[in-house]
Structure prediction request, 506 residues.
Amino acid sequence: MEREVDVIVIGGGPVGENAADRARAAGLEVVLVERELVGGECSYWACVPSKTLLRSAAALRAARRVDGAEQAVTGRLDVQAVLARRDYWVSDWSDQGGADWLESIGVGLERGHGRLDGVRRVVVERAGGEAVVYRARHAVIVATGSDPVIPPIDGLAEAAPWTSREATSVTEPPARLVVIGGGVTGVEMATAFAGFGTEVTVLARSGLLGTMEPFAGEAVAKGLRELGASVRLDAAVERVERTPSGEVVVTLDDGETITADEVLVATGRRPRSERLGLETVGLEPGDWVAVDDTMLATGATGNDAAPWLYAAGDLNHRALLTHQGKYQARAVGDLVAARAVGGPEQTAPWGAHVATADHTAVPQVVFAEPEAVSVGVTAAEAERAGHEVRIADVSFSSVSGAGILADGYEGQARLVVDAERNTVVGATFVGQDVAELLQSATIAIVGEVPIDRLWHAVPAFPTMSEVWLRLLEALGRPGSSDAAAPGDAGRADHSGARTDDAGSAA
Prediction:
């Protein structure tokens, strides 16, 4: 017996939840299939627990950077309290709240492993061994996410390494931790455990945060070292061994060995598509699922004649970030609903049913020490793409709000401007609490706001957002002779002086 519904969503993380919610809001009958916890990787083993683990030590460091508050800090970080707070935010790894929410909006929950079995057909293998079959009248949306990669290093798999899951669900921080990888996960977990007092060693084949501007990785490497971590760049791991005593011995390609209690692997991710049944619809199991801007799976059987299979989130490999996956999910959920009820389809660039921003404005925050955030392209990427580039680099020492936020504030900001269109195409901020500056840059890029118009977006004084004024000054006032020429890096060197009683810049 097959049960027929309008839409089947495979994967109950934030992406699947959002897609199901949008389709159900249009009146469609939706069933969501999840094999683990409703809420997925982000809620229980990634975004939420990792940022919770990072926050307490960051708050403590922030207090110690403000004279007067510093003197009031007399104790050390309470690690067990941090872990208890993490447990609260992951609901002690119970998804009852997520299941209750699905029920409240009328989405059916099927617990088990879902796989495709031909066009519009999904088989769900329940935990007890029973299999049930669903057929979708309109669409199947796959949102199964990704898993950490364990690289083929001699002995690594046998050494039972940590991945992000073990790191974020830790119950007792190890005394010594080796982190293999210099990307976001590696950097954030190194920051978290260094904050706990763990002796951390980071091994990166090149620099840190290689997809960002070089100064971001350099600042984070400096910050990790100041936390007591060892950061080894250009380090290649040749072998990993778990000794009978439980220690881990990591051997580098130059013969040096590092002994630790645990080793965390953070070297990339792979799609959860090996057991998804992709081969039954003409796609390759184990691969990322290629999609167009509407999230329609390209090359899937039957999709050309009557669109039915979509892939959102990590699985399509466009932007492995929860917020971008949710953005895709909202678009595809609304599109599936529009196609089901015969409504208008808004599939032109920047239409409601496409994920145009995946190509131009993907924001990312690295909650390291210091924070490093970016959106759009780097200067090098813009140049490779053929843009006529203008660059503005500013130190946060020129921003009064930064100096008030923290004594001796250190940080840097960069805007990358397409000189031909006179719009921002990339932005990077590095420093304490810069994450909240990112949305303004994202809006500037998505809205293609001309630089001349940005001069009229006046930042409040004295706030961190005043960095925007300094960046614009570095680019040059519109219509004046001090405007930076294309290819130049305008660098402001402001003193960040105090203000007079009227609040005007001194």
User: Anything to note?
Assistant: The chain is about 30% helix and 25% strand. Confidence is low (pLDDT under 50) at residues 484-506. The first helix runs from residue 14 to 25.
